[in-house]
Amino acid sequence: MLLNFHSLDDLNALPPIENPLVGDRQNNPLQALNFVEPNLPPEDDEKPRMDILQASIESEKACIQIYDRLNERTERLAGKGGLTFKAQFPWRLRVGGTRGFRELLLPVLHPVFGIPYLPASSLKGAARAWAKHNEVENVSDLLGFLDGKIAKAAQIEFLDAFPTKPCLSVDMANNLWRWEGDRDRIRYQSEPHPLLSLEKPEFLIGIVPTNRCQNPDDLKTVKTWLENALTAGIGSRVSAGYGRSSIISTSKSFISRHQFSLFTQGMHGAFKNVVEFRPTAVRGMLRYWFRAVALGLYSPQECKQLEKRLFGSIEPATEGSIRIAVELNNNQPPNCNPWVYEGAIVLEAKYSDDLKLAQYLLKLASHFGGIGQGARRPLHWNNGRLRGCHWELTEYILPAQKQDWRQLFDGIVDAFERVNGQSARVGAGEPGTPGDRTQDVLNKNARIYWLSRTYGDNFI
């Protein structure tokens, strides 16, 4: 990246940062990971792998001085006509870097300092993508372009962005249900994969004009593009709530918010003793109920393709239409019993019909199941502690009359037909062998029972 410096003194405005010693596992996360690679634990031994990830997190805590110096340098580089701003991410962020030991996906780590960062190329790509998606006309003029032998230099440049403090955290991805076999069957198989992500990070971002920039307002324009891009999300797993600097999106999409309250025995990530509210659990819940209904309407092959269009896919990498995020109103102290969360589930979709379907799935899920640990059980006492879960959406009251349920299911079928109506037929799916953990199917053979107790004239 080329910058327009006023003098050579600008390059040395700050004292040099001491580079980490190669081979010392205590200096930075990258070296902590490199230190163990020649002597990896056995493939099926999970504990050493978690210890390695924890060691990289501990090593990052010693990098506070590096973060301070790099952010001071960003302020100095942007001080000659540029600007800086801070971007906060309320949950987690993961910008993919390389594959580490045992094919473990690592966040992008700086090749010199060994710390997590947002490369200037990622920031520029996010701003460009948002501007093009919203049909901005002067994108190539401000950000430049390269098309074969034709190129145009940018008027605005981006600086690498570094966290303001340590933020590495052990995270987990766990796909409980997956498609398998030639018959496209859904099967339950818990496959937890530990990984590193950035938890509630804050970045100092700098952008600067080059000597080709003639209009000072162009810098503010590009800053707006980038802010909107970060709001929409940056990095991987954006559709599951990662990488969003805030929840409100200004892109061309359809959004709805649904207030909720949740009482749960806990929601766990990489560690069973560490509880956190994970938007990925909400996304997994919606995906489960999507399959339960879709397999009763379509063939497995059609269901698989529709799921990929709506929720995305890893192989091949496909962006889905539906995104899920959560706005929490309260922070829980440790060791709650039960854990209580309140806030809003935010649904966002590229198309209005897709959003309508997601709303129906959310309503269905609020009536039939829970989120997190004990999702299939009601909230109850068991051996001195609360188990199960209870949650509800403020605007969706559990139906008590048969006609209300009929109206709900008619609306769900209609929503599916609007997004994929060519061959919708009730009863097409089948649940598989009883006793085997295959996907449930909510079709015409399903039955709903309302259980209640009465004492005199009181209904409970």
Describe this structure in words.
This protein has 460 residues and is α+β, with helices and mostly antiparallel strands. The protein has two domains: 8-232, no CATH class; 254-459, no CATH class. Helices cover 30% and strands 22% of the residues. The protein contains ten helices and 21 strands. The strands form eight sheets. Strands 1, 7, 8 and 13 form a four-stranded antiparallel sheet that branches. Strand 17 (380-382) and strand 18 (385-387) form a beta hairpin. Helix 4 crosses helix 6 (217-232) and helix 7 packs antiparallel against helix 8. It is globular and about 70 Å long. The N and C termini lie far apart (68 Å). The relative contact order is 0.11. Residues 1-15 and 17-25 have low confidence and may be disordered.
Shape: globular
Total beta-strand segments:
21
Please give the share of residues in helix: 25-40%
Distance between the termini: 68 Å
Evaluate the radius of gyration: 25 Å
Task: Give the number of helices.
Answer: 10
Note poorly predicted spans: 1-15, 17-25
Number of folding domains?
A: 2
Gist of the model:
By secondary structure, this protein is of the alpha+beta class. The chain has helices at residues 29-36, 46-60, 64-78, 120-133, 139-143, 217-232, 279-294, 300-311, 352-368, 402-419; strands at 83-88, 92-93, 96-99, 105-107, 145-147, 150-152, 156-158, 162-163, 168-174, 177-180, 185-188, 192-199, 202-209, 254-264, 322-328, 339-349, 380-382, 385-387, 389-393, 454-455, 458-459. It contains 10 helices and 21 strands.
